[in-house]
Design a protein that fits this description.
By secondary structure, the chain is α/β, with parallel strands linked by helices. The chain is built from 17 helices and 10 strands.
Length: 435
């Protein structure tokens, strides 16, 4: 069974292996709290064994629904936070970077709404969808979260105008609570196809529920391979796996050891442009899980080599409060060599005949060496290839490590009380009843 790899050797100038191993007891305790369900937020542990609990029948239902939506030209995924970031991370990583330009796509183009309150965005999106056949996947446990609820109200009206009310209800799928909430009430009333967001799975851990699986399947990605990767990672990061070979525990211990040494910011870096939204998903996962009680590593993300020409200066020589976790893809899908040019005005003939990926890999290695020399500890995660199986592994690995790491910090990794502050102020300013 091939697995992603974790290499922590390049942090040893800041923390020694023995200092990391000193966190073994805390990591094992974090694993125990997760698996026994005795830690803070234990009513939100439905993600823990989610991959291995997904049945063939459930996957078939998702695939069948996705097949119906793939008859549309566009499908709008409405949701905020984990309700869209997991989907976007997987789809952007695995589909063509230029899907929006292709005129002969096999699958509809996924568009996103409800992740922002932007009037221009909604107007421009509505203009694209006017007189088009589009579907909607509306994701909300309550149906009353402002951003997605507002977007759904606007796009539902447009869809009904485009297709007629009777046809529109066949193009809307609601992913919501099993029995309660505004969206559940509306879905039951209108007869929308529905999937359930489990009560014990929070949004940022929901990518392996229909929240992620349905739109990922609509995009034509093999969700069975995606789930299989997550199942295998669930097995190898289980509580019974010894600390020294448990990827999730080791990553959690390393980042906590670095945090204790004053490394307060973790920068997730990649050298593959299709991984950008993996970083965005990861930022929410760790920021919302650990950033509480005046604790937590601040999660940031960069895309290399692009950001080496902007953020690279600060990373190399700024305040030494950072460490770096690099996601590396061993083998890209495609092959392109640098052509020879007789004039060689750009001076690149020394690269002629080399693969572009070889140039990229040397940039990756050179960057790692420079950052380590500059006092930036470096963790490396290697994916053998960029496919659904390994992305499934990667996302579950981060989820499991996040749960362990949060418990090591002695916070509740599964709530987000700070998110409510802006909502209360916004509702009061808008004169919402009750505020």
């Amino acid at each position: 069974m091939n697995l992603i790899e974790l290499n922590i050797e390049k942090v040893f100038e800041t923390v020694t292996r023995s200092q990391i191993d000193a966190f073994e007891v805390k990591a094992n305790k974090g694993q125990e709290l997760l698996h026994k369900g005795t830690g803070k937020g234990s009513d939100f542990l439905g993600w823990l064994h989610l991959p291995s609990s997904i049945t063939k029948a459930e996957l078939e239902e998702v695939e069948q629904t996705a097949a119906g939506l793939r008859k549309c030209e566009y499908v709008v995924v409405i949701g905020i936070g984990g309700s869209y970031l997991g989907t976007k991370a997987v789809v952007e990583a695995l589909n063509s970077s230029f899907d929006q330009l292709e005129t002969r796509r096999k699958n509809p183009l996924l568009l996103y709404a409800g992740h922002t309150i932007g009037e221009d965005y909604l107007v421009e999106l509505s203009a694209v969808l006017k007189n088009k056949r589009f579907g909607i996947i509306n994701i909300s446990k309550s149906g009353t979260t402002t951003e997605p609820a507002l977007a759904f109200r606007v796009l539902k009206k447009l869809l009904e105008k485009n297709a007629g009310k009777a046809a529109a209800k066949e193009l809307i799928v609601a992913i919501t609570d099993k029995a309660r909430g505004a969206l559940r009430t509306l879905a039951d009333k209108e007869g929308y196809k529905t999937f359930v967001i489990p009560d014990n799975v929070g949004g940022r851990f929901s990518v392996l529920t229909p929240v992620g699986l349905l739109p990922i399947a609509v995009a034509g990605i093999n969700i069975r391979a995606f789930v299989k990767g997550a199942v295998n990672m669930e097995k190898v990061t289980d509580v019974e796996t010894p600390f020294a070979s448990n990827l999730a525990s080791l990553y959690a211990a390393t980042r906590n050891a670095l945090y204790e040494k004053g490394k307060k910011v973790e920068i997730l870096a990649n050298f593959h442009p299709k991984m950008h939204y993996i970083g965005e998903w990861w930022k929410q996962l760790y920021g919302e899980s650990e950033g509480k009680d005046n604790k937590g590593v601040f999660p940031a993300a960069v895309d290399f080599t692009t950001d080496l020409h902007s953020m690279g200066q600060w990373i190399q020589q700024g305040e030494r409060i950072i460490f770096e976790t690099v996601i590396s893809v061993e083998k890209p899908d495609n092959r392109l060599t640098v052509p020879y040019d007789r004039a060689d005005l750009d001076g690149l003939n020394y690269l002629a005949g080399k693969r572009v990926d070889e140039v990229n890999k040397m940039a990756e290695l050179g960057t790692q060496m420079a950052h380590i020399d500059g006092g930036v500890p470096n963790i490396k995660i290697t994916l053998p290839a960029l496919n659904a199986y390994y992305i499934g592994q990667l996302l579950y690995f981060f989820e499991k490590a996040c749960g362990v790491s949060g418990y090591m910090l002695d916070v509740n990794p599964f709530d987000q009380p700070g998110v409510e502050a802006y909502k209360k102020n916004m509702f009061a300013l808008l004169k919402k009843p009750g505020y």
